[in-house]
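pinned: reference chain
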Amino acid sequence: METLNYEVLRQSGYAGYILPHAPEKVLQFGEGNFLRAFVDYWFDVANEKTGWNGKCCLVQPIAPGLAAQINAQQGLYTLYLRGRQDGGKVDQKRVISSVSRCLNPYEKADYDAMMAVAVSDDLEYIVSNTTEAGIVYDPACQPGDCPPAPFPAKLTQVLLARWRAGKPGVIILSCELIDNNGKELQKCVSRYIDQWALGEEFRAWVNEQCLFCSTLVDRIVPGRIRDAAEAARLDAENGYHDQLIDVGEIFGVWNIEGPAWLADRLPFKAAGLNCPVVPDVTPYKKRKVRILNGAHTGFVLGAYLAGLDIVRDCMCDDTFRGFMNKMLREEVVPILPLDKQDCLQFAAAVEDRFNNPFVDHELLSISLNSTAKWRARNMPSLLEYVGANGALPPCLAMSFAAYLAFYTSDLQGLTEAGFIARRPAGNTYTISDDRWVLEFYAAHHADEIPALVRAVMTDTRMWGRDLTRVPGFEEATVKNLALIRQKGSRAAFASVL
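pinned: its structure tokens
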């Protein structure tokens, strides 16, 4: 079977939208599954819906990458968006044609090609997702490196070339999963301007003519299809071999921090895509962490102890689905500093996203580092609820007791991999967390419930505060943990519904 390219796609009879030729308006650092299922998909839809007529030139952030495979397919790949939407099952296929090529800047010819795109009259946007470790300043980098390793140093070279060519500034959209990603990237560029003595005129152009946007991306992207039989079946259905098949959930939102005019400048609003331009993405990150991520951490540990294994099964269980929805709608959403109807709609979409029939998201994988996760995702909601209402939120309080139950369920011993515990059903599981956390529970797992609860809640290294100072929380946790151990987590979660 022939590998996907424009001619092979034509011969296959594909009837969807395709744009063979267009100017390269986007220079994208990152060629992985997420960007191809999210950013490149959005630009592809913008081409179809608005006639934006642009292509994305991709750049490998590191030496090993996908440039050879992408170029062999002339930038084409098949994207499947799968999940549930408005209660119904969705399985959409689209061949993405917004990618022109992929450059490996660690090869001299491709480095020169990247710099040629940098000074192009067509270039409007620079997009990046170089992982959480990508936005970093490395003082070892020099202006003559071809290329320097860190992305911010590469970006500084690209912007310098553009400025020297007398070209206008660009809009920079950072998608890395760090706080204030755009601002942090701009800080790194500023440090290279200082280190490399690039001058105040260039600095003024960067700061005044270029727009560094912090953004928040939200789409679960499982990525390539790893089941060989399914991949072969899809190739047979499509009539071509695609070595770059990508899979994402149907839900997607891209919050972009910027001035109001940016909403009309970007092609996404006119294309009907979910891309709010907002003055500050911080509240939207809080919404995602508190609702989406907080929902996971809030129910998965109790659900696992009750015998469930994957997230989708929890959404088919009245107790755990009901617990999650009550926690989100009555305890989390009311205290968020955003439009309540918008937050409720986001929370309602969570149930569909977790009920994705195409993704087997294991509860045990979500349990990794639950101490830090509960602190970041659930504790702020609990504390703010208490501050606003003068009472404990029952579901969030129960989620903390479930965390304790999961970490102390018939512990078998500490190994290099983690703490081995036993589920009520009899099988063992591994608790994975920071070593000091595991050693703490090794020292306290045999404590009586009141002593265990006090030891955990007063450990300020875990929580950054003494949780026994939250009125009624210690007493409620003792009661809830006892209920979980005596009657099981299902009965305990049902007790707060």
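why pinned: The longest helix spans residues 282-305. The longest strand covers residues 77-85.
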